Structure formats: C-alpha cells, structure tokens
Amino acid sequence: MDWGMQNRLARLIKPNGRTMFLPIDHGYFQGPTRKLEKPGQTIEPLIQYADGLFVTRGVLRSCIDPANSPPVILRVSGGSSVIGKDLAHETLTTSIQEAVRLNVAAVGMSIFIGSEYEFDSLQNLGKLVDECENNGIPVMAVTAVGKELAKRDARYLSLSCRIAAEFGAKVVKTYWCEDFDRVTNGCPVPIVMAGGPKCETEKEVFEFVHDGIQKGAIGVNLGRNVWQAEHPAPTMKALRAIIHDDASVNDAQEIFNEEKNK
To answer: Hey, how many other C-beta atoms are within 10 angstroms of the C-beta on 74?
Structure first.
C-alpha cells in the first residue's frame, strides 16, 4: 500500500484501530430527510465528535465549512430515488478528479448483492477501485439492500462483505445482525456498522454497537440513529465511549444521561 493510501486511511482510522463516521448522504436518494433538511445546521454540534464525514459533493460544498471539517468520505454513487422503480439501479456519479479536487480521505459507493443490478454495481466497484488505486484513494463499499431490509442476516451480509473486499474495497460498511462475528470473520478488510432504520431508544443503539465492536467491527457509520435522536450530541458522545474507550452499554447510558441533563 503506497504512502498516500496509508495516509488517507490513517486520517479516518485512529491509532487504536477504531473509527466513528457520521453519514449525511441520505438526501442523494431520499431528498430532505427529517432533521437533515439543513445539513450544516444539523451537524454543527456533532462534527467535532466525528472521525469522518460521509457526504455528497453538493452538500460538502454548500454546507460544510472547509476550515472545520473532519476527514471526508465522498459518496460517488447514485442515480435512483426513493420514489423510483429500484434503489439498486445506481451508477458512478462523481469522478476521481473531483475526489482529488475536494481532498477527500476516501470515496464510498453502494453495492446491491442479489438484486437485479448486482452485476452493474459490482462492475462499478471494480472500475472505482482501479481508478482510486491509481490515485491513492481508499474505497468504502456499502452493502446496501434497498427497500428489502429482510436481507440483513449473517449469511447475506457475510457474502456481500466478502465480495466487496475481494473487489478491492479497503473498508466495508454493512448492517449489524445476529451472529455478527460470522460477518467480520469472513471479511479481510475493516468493517464499520450502518444504522439502518432509526431505533426506538438510544439503548438499543448502544447495545448493537457494543456487540458489533466486541465481534470485530472497527466502528460505525451511523446517521439517523444520531441526528434524528432526541439528544444527538449526548448520543454521539456515548457511542464514542463504546468505540474508543471500550465502554459498556451501561457506561454509555450513564454518559448519555449525564450529557443530556447538562
């Protein structure tokens, strides 16, 4: 791995091998998602706690202060909306020249294993990895499932993550599931956990994140379960304690309670 690639990964993954990404890329297919109508305002109290920001180029340029930004993972795939025929019908929407111009630490795109567009998304991943290797930019593959959330089990996710790694992704974003160690054990590159639909309580979030970290994930890429929470900053601080300080679920809950009462 060349120096540029190592340097970019080191910007995202801390010396303890852990990381906490904050994704705000949801608008590329959902439009003005609840509590993300004004992305800059939403993340203003949260950005200091993020190790990386997963974002589209449009929101990056229009909403993020270049003097106060964590390392950026640039969303480079898209092409379908939530009201379209199939969310899996994506293509690459952003050039590597744009990623270099924006000085990003990594790029990210979705793959849709088992969908009608499996071949297309994997072909896109292969092309993206080729271009990024030539420019020293890591690729994060997102094992997306579109609207078919029932696919989020260990058998499916371990298949998807392994394929992403085989195609050259340096990091894989996937969902937590039961028997999550089956997913991490079968993937030779680091895994970060997605949040998926918003949980009912913050404790549910702390529980699955803690379990996933114990079973081999290096961190999270949580959006709605942070910025749609009733107390976003306390939630993020508690999650950081689990990820970076090996806090227990109870410890995280105590941190959350203390912070929200300040």
So the answer is: 25
Q: Which segment of 84-88, 134-138, 178-182 scores lowest on mean pLDDT?
A: 84-88
245 belongs to a structural domain = no
Rounded-to-integer distance, Cα 94 and Cα 59, Å: 13
pLDDT tens digits along 47-102: 999 999 999 999 999 999 999 999 999 999 999 999 999 999 999 999 999 999 99
Cβ atoms of 56 and 75 within 8 Å: the answer is: yes
SS3 assignment, position 168: coil
- Give catalytic residues, as residue numbers: 173
Closest CA to 170 of 141, 131, 130, 212: 141
Q: pTM for the full model?
A: 0.96
Closest of 203, 144, 141, 207 to residue 178, by C-alpha: 207
208 phi and psi, to 5 degrees? -75, -35
Q: What are the Cα distances from residue 100, in Å, to 30, 74, 126, 182?
A: 26, 10, 19, 35
Question: Is residue 54 a contact partner of residue 25, using CB atoms and an 8 Å limit?
Answer: yes
Nearest CA among 95, 137, 90, 79 for reference residue 115: 90
240 belongs to a structural domain = no
- State how far the Cα of 226 lies from the Cα of 215, in Å rounded to an integer: 22
CATH number, domain of 147, equals 3.20.20.70
Split into its structural domains, the chain has a count of 1
Containing domain of residue 114, as a range? Answer: 3-195+217-223
Structure tokens belonging to residue 107: 């790029």
